Amino acid sequence: MATQKRQRSPAEIEDAILRKMFLVSLTDSMENDSRVVYLEMTAAEILSEGKELRLSRDLMERILIDRLSGGFESAEPPFPYLLGCYRRAYEEGKKIQSMKDKNVRSEMEIVVKQAKKLSVSYCRLHLGNPGLFPSAVVSGANKSSVSPLLPLIFSEVSSSVGGFGGSSSSSGGCPPGFLEEFFRDSDFDSLDPILKALYEDLRGSVLKVSALGNFQQPLRALLFLVSFPSGAKSLVNHPWWIPKGAYLNGRVIEMTSILGPFFHVSSLPDHTIFKSEPDVGQQCFSEASNRRPADMLSSFTTIKTLMNNLNDGLSEVLLSLLKNSETRESVLEYLAEVINKNSSRAHIQVDPISCASSGMFVNLSAVMLRLCEPFLDANLTKRDKIDHKYVFYSTRLDLRGLTALHASSEEVAEWINKVNPGKTDSRQYSDGENRLLQSQEATSSGSNAFGPFSPHNPKPMSSSGEKAKYPFICECFFMTARVLNLGLLKAFSDFKHLVQDISRCEDALLNLKDTRGSAPSPQLESDIARLEKEIESYSQEKLCYEAQILRDGALIQQALSFCRLMVVWLVGLVGGFKMPLPSTCPMEFACMPEHFVEDAMELLIFASRIPKALDGVLLDDFMNFIIMFMASPNFIRNPYLRAKMVEVLNCWMPRRSGSSITATLFEGHQLSLEYLVRNLLKLYVDIEFTGSHTQFYDKFNIRHNIAELLEYLWQVPSHRNAWRQIAKEEEKGVYLNFLNFLVNDSIYLLDESLNKILELKELEAEMSNTAEWERRPAQERQERTRLFHSQENIIRIDMKLANEDVSMLAFTSEQITAPFLLPEMVERVANMLNYFLLQLVGPQRKSLSLKDPEKYEFRPKHLLKQIVYIYVHLAKGDTENIFPSAISKDGRSYYEKLFSDAAEVLRKIGEDGRVIQEFIELGAKAKVAASEAMDTEEALGEIPDEFLDPIQYTLMKDPVILPSSKITVDRPVIQRHLLSDNTDPFNRSHLTPDMLIPNDELKARIQEFIRSQELKKHGEGLSMQSTKATIQTTTGEMTLID
């Protein structure tokens, strides 16, 4: 009969468990497990104390110290040993659960818990003081410099289900609960050096890693560490949180701060010194033209997904730190330092050695937009938390040096001192702000708690003696605005320049390949190879931008939502969306940084060119803003910024956007119907003088956008009615100025185009003479070929603009004729039309023939018809019959057969017979007017100099005195001059039409002179008739006598 197994006592069970967990023995029993260490000295001490050789919880720490300090041969190093102790304790803990005796089970659970706690505690002690235990020194020679905790953390975050996804798994290097216990509830001073080393390791692991590298594991590890209060505190107290030093700049922060290398992870190109691996462009987009569309789409999707993972993770890291009141301030200081040290990224040329990369700032843009999400709700209910005073009084961000919307830096300084002399506005975070950060939600349920937005209600919350503090929403808003300017918007600009570089290289390559046939050379082949390599490199970079930015619709829409908040908030500074604007610009608005508006406009332009990017975006607020400020130089000083608003509208035209949503902005929008045409006409005039040295050429591009919009709006009945009303109300105001500049531009552009055509034909003739051309040096041929292509481009652009202007003159003159026929305008218009008519149908017309005129936008038949329509339209509206006289007065282009020659050409090209007839009748009237003018000139005889206009040398009809120079001129002549230039032509002093002084005395003398000359002529006529009658009578009498 078998003997019954003896039941072990609790002390024996405890001894067995402790021996298993700590792999130690107090007896030299030659254990099978080679890891078990015989603690001979410890056993001797216990015996000398009269105790039994058995392990107990009271001896636990003692045996652990002896095991770690003993320097036993072939024993595990301290860290893996302690980690093993924890793992074995965890396993024993699971076995204990099956014990039937509750009291024993409870006692053993206490033992296991104590063992785990002790293992973790000594792990901290060892990692904080690596030289403390001798065996650590022995193993140190072959040991990696990376913290042994790092692989455990990687194992933990790779197997856990968190914000980054992944699958759950209990297997791996880290025993469950170890890291949680290691970092939680410990003395900060003992953990801090360990955490700092871990952060340095994490930073190093992502240094120069691209979007295709392994950044996700270190990022998860970073998020894991900052989830512990001690981890968050240690991170922001790390010396590399914000690096210090005399040579600190944007790039130094990016490469040496703990977070910098994480933000540097990107697919965007960077300077060679800082280039990341693997090379995204090379790996995903090399020889892109030969790749299948499905492969390209896969690359785009992969990069977009990876970058979203990165930015989601980084925003979680920052949010975790921002939720913690102890670390929030440090995060804001870090962001401010990154922004301030990279302010020169706003320059056209960016120094890549001193500035952080585009990749970092595009990532930072995406992260900041994620932080803004809670206050970007549809109703923008939190905008009253944004305080304009932050721009002036914040000591965190450098905002005061930025170009303001209207105020000069001196005006800003003067206003600040006047409004708040020697005081500092101050705020604390409200409970609501803290709740917002804790939840990262901005629901509309509490939106009504905020009253109407008032820029004059800063709600100071703390004593004026403290450093100014602002709500998180306010800080986040202004920081995001700066980051977008230096990041996403700068990237848009870089992308645009990249596209231009590719186009330039492709044109140059085409020219070189054209030359290859006629003058091959080794240098030429070398240049071709170099250009092909450049184009391949540029194309890869372009596709990287497209993958990370253009294809990320969510990023673009988040940025648009932020910009919508920006414009709504800015409009709040001038009293809200209402017209007309206040008579004076509030300084709160005038002092705001100009780039706030410019960035919003640039983003709208860029987004408008990306398919579906505007879907679901609320555009009404942008439309209101543009209409309010596009023609308001007293609110937005920079004319180029106001012109950019027109570019936005141009992108929104239905035929360009292909969207019915944008059509309603023009055709069903109240402010648009009332003010859009008026403000476009005003901007057309204002843009004549921008103050830039390139203003003469800039105005044509800006007016091209305005002209396209006006042509579209003319086709909308409500806008056309508004246009006619403006022309009536502003006949002698803005509309007359608009018409004057439209005529000026038409004359310049068409004249320039026609002259360039003659030059182009000369070049064509040179190149077509093959024998002569081949004898010329290769370099000369290349230069002449370049000139030829340059002339082609100039003609194409100028002719396109000229066609637009002439077309606008044609369609507007059909219904609006009065301004064309004003005394100061009618002769200018007639001269222009006569000149164009002469060029198109006169003796020299054949010299303008081109092989492919359509290539140059040159359509002479259509242009002739448009010019004839203008003639006919003005003739119909000419109730006082002044137009024929103006036509015939043109001594440069008008001649008697001009109209009949034009009518002959019109018949050949199939113009409507009624139009031709009306045109011929106008020509006949001009002929009569010319004859009458000659008779009048003959009747007046020699005119005294004092009656002649000193500018035109024509007889004055309405003489006026110029107040400054005191010279008398004819009113229509000076008024025509003032349409283009508000200065006295004799001394350049300021002059406006209302300053002209009528010279009534001289006018009366001129009228008397005309009457006397007419009477004199009339008297001479009667005398001649009397003489003729006498001669006839005498002749009759002689006949009778005979």
UniProtKB/TrEMBL annotation:
Residue ranges, annotated region (Disordered): 437-462
Annotated localization: Cytoplasm; Nucleus
GO function term, MF aspect, one: ubiquitin-ubiquitin ligase activity
First-tier enzyme category under EC: transferase
Compositional bias per record (Polar residues), positions renumbered to this chain: 437-448
Gene Ontology CC: one annotated term: cytoplasm
GO terms (BP aspect): ERAD pathway; protein polyubiquitination; ubiquitin-dependent protein catabolic process
Coiled-coil region(s): 521-548
SMART domains according to UniProt: Ubox
InterPro entries documented for this protein: Ub_conjug_fac_E4_core, UBE4, Ubox_domain, Znf_RING/FYVE/PHD
Matches recorded under Gene3D superfamilies: Zinc/RING finger domain, C3HC4 (zinc finger)
Signal peptide from the UniProt entry: none
Pfam families registered for this protein in UniProt: U-box, Ufd2P_core
Associated pathway: Protein modification; protein ubiquitination
Keyword Ligase in annotation: no
Name recorded for this polypeptide: RING-type E3 ubiquitin transferase
Organism from which the protein derives: Liquidambar formosana
